[in-house]
Amino acid sequence: MKTDRTCNNSFWTNEEDKIFENTLATKGDNNNLLEEMAKALPKKSADDIKDHYNILIEDIKAIESRYVSLPYYPEMQN
């Protein structure tokens, strides 16, 4: 089931995204990930966090399936 990106009315700031990413990176193997996210992002509801996570998973699947191509970055010249 695809997450409808328009159903999530929550706006995420760059700072909130970074907190989300850092919490996922450091607590991702925790069975209480949602609780950890809620502690780290007290202004976000559980539904906001779940929606944001599901969108991330969809993005990863699209990239891994090569549905979305990665951008071309020219090699840096020394």
From TrEMBL:
<dbReference type="GO" id="GO:0003700">
    <property type="term" value="F:DNA-binding transcription factor activity"/>
</dbReference>
<dbReference type="InterPro" id="IPR044636">
    <property type="entry name" value="RADIALIS-like"/>
</dbReference>
<dbReference type="InterPro" id="IPR009057">
    <property type="entry name" value="Homeodomain-like_sf"/>
</dbReference>
<feature type="domain" description="Myb-like">
    <location>
        <begin position="8"/>
        <end position="59"/>
    </location>
</feature>
<keyword id="KW-0539">Nucleus</keyword>
<dbReference type="Pfam" id="PF00249">
    <property type="entry name" value="Myb_DNA-binding"/>
</dbReference>
<keyword id="KW-0805">Transcription regulation</keyword>
<dbReference type="GO" id="GO:0000976">
    <property type="term" value="F:transcription cis-regulatory region binding"/>
</dbReference>
<dbReference type="GO" id="GO:0010597">
    <property type="term" value="P:green leaf volatile biosynthetic process"/>
</dbReference>
<protein>
    <recommendedName>
        <fullName>Myb-like domain-containing protein</fullName>
    </recommendedName>
</protein>
<keyword id="KW-0804">Transcription</keyword>
<dbReference type="InterPro" id="IPR001005">
    <property type="entry name" value="SANT/Myb"/>
</dbReference>
